[in-house]
Amino acid sequence: MKISALIIDDEPLARNLINNLLRTEPMINVIGICKTGKEAILMIDTLKPNLIFLDIKLKDMTGFDILERISVKAPMIIFVTAFDAYALKAFNFFAFDYLLKPFNESRFYISVNKAIEAFHKKDTSLFQKKVNNLMNHVRVADKNPIKKLPIPLRNRTIFIPLNEIIYITASNYYAEIYTENKKYLLRESLQNLLDMLNPDHFIRIHRSTIINIDFIKELINSGYGAIHVKMKDSNQFRISKSYKKTFLTKMGV
């Protein structure tokens, strides 16, 4: 009996790669490919696949949102993610299988073979239990967002209260985190940091800039539709076109 599979990813290259790799696996039958969470929920409820390859962060919702909203029993899941090792601690804790982008073919087939073996052993109840445990973990994390950001410093780690962070800028492979009194360096992407920060206070205004809106002093119209935000420490940052609408809506301007 073939295993029916659904691919859920908002990146065309990732969708095509997974689909092409599965064509060489005779035990897997791809019955659908989704690029949005809304489409994925409908397909899962309608087609009831045995296995899904699920991207954690889509443009319209997260993979966890999808699992919360489906009306059928969750199938076996191979998570596909660009999250780094820091964000994947939860997956290791719950012994989930996942593909960390960019993944190679050998790692992909290890995941697939595990799923095939579990399916033939009818051991899917273990997968269901793991899904439930992870979803409970995610719910608790959502209700208890972090209040301090850990910063490793040689042989110690300090914790910066989030409400003290004025803005964060990208610098090569590092993020520069500014408070009123000091600058800290953290080897982390801005996107991963944004995922950890409270969206009620922090917003991205440029691919290289996140600001705490509580520290905004004023907005400056610089001509030709350009807008700069001036922070309370007098530093100014340009709001790029791709983030402008979201920012102005949030600020009620």
Concise account of the structure shown:
The modification 4-aspartylphosphate is found at residue 55. This protein has helices spanning 12-22, 37-47, 63-69, 89-93, 105-120, 124-143, 190-196, 241-251, and strands spanning 3-8, 28-34, 51-55, 76-81, 98-100, 148-153, 156-161, 165-171, 174-179, 183-186, 202-206, 209-212, 216-223, 226-231, 236-239.
Structure description:
- The protein has 253 residues and is an alpha/beta fold.
- It has 2 domains: 3-143, Rossmann fold (3-Layer(aba) Sandwich); 149-251, OB fold (Dihydrolipoamide Acetyltransferase, E2P) (Beta Barrel).
- The protein contains 8 helices and 15 strands.
- The protein has a 5-stranded parallel β-sheet, sandwiched between helices. A 5-stranded antiparallel β-sheet has the order 10-9-8-12-11. Strands 13-14-15 form a 3-stranded antiparallel β-sheet.
Question: The biggest beta sheet, please?
Answer: 5 strands, parallel
Number of contiguous helices:
8
Provide the residue-averaged pLDDT.
84
Point out poorly predicted stretches: none
**CATH architecture level-2 label of the largest domain:** 3-Layer(aba) Sandwich
Whole-angstrom Rg: 21 Å
**Judging from the principal axes of the Cα atoms, what is the shape?**
elongated
- Report the helical percentage: 25-40%
- Tell me what portion of residues adopts beta-strand conformation: 25-35%
Strand order of the largest sheet: 2-1-3-4-5
- Measured distance between first and last alpha carbons: 58 Å
Q: How many domains, as an integer?
A: 2
Domain HTH LytTR-type: 149-253
Protein name: Two component transcriptional regulator, LytTR family
GO molecular function: DNA binding; phosphorelay response regulator activity
Keywords: Phosphoprotein
